[in-house]
Design goal:
The chain has two helices and two strands; from the N terminus they run E-H-E-H. The longest helix has 42 residues.
C-alpha cells in the first residue's frame, strides 16, 4: 500500500522536484499538489470526496459480484 501525499509548496519548481523525488522513491503516491494553504484545503476536500465516491463504487461492485456469483451457483444447481 502506497503512502498518499498532498504536496504543498508555494514554489512550482520545488513542488515539481519533490514530486519527482517522492514518486521515484517507491511507496509514495503524490495524489495532488497545491501552491498555498487555500489551494491545499480545497484540493484535500476534492480528494476526500473522490475517495468517498470511489469507496461507494467499490461497495456497489462487490455487491454486484456477489449477486452474480449467487445467480451462477443457483443456475448450476438447476442445470
Amino acid at each position: 500500500m502506497n503512502i498518499r501525499v498532498l504536496l504543498v509548496d508555494d514554489h512550482a519548481v520545488v513542488r515539481d522536484g519533490l514530486r519527482a523525488l517522492l514518486e521515484n522513491s517507491g511507496g509514495i503516491e503524490v495524489v495532488g499538489t497545491a501552491g498555498n494553504g487555500r489551494e491545499a484545503v480545497s484540493e484535500a476536500q476534492r480528494l476526500r470526496e473522490l475517495e468517498r465516491e470511489n469507496t461507494k463504487l467499490k461497495e456497489l461492485l462487490a455487491d454486484q459480484l456477489l449477486k452474480n456469483k449467487a445467480l451462477e451457483i443457483a443456475l448450476e444447481k438447476n442445470a
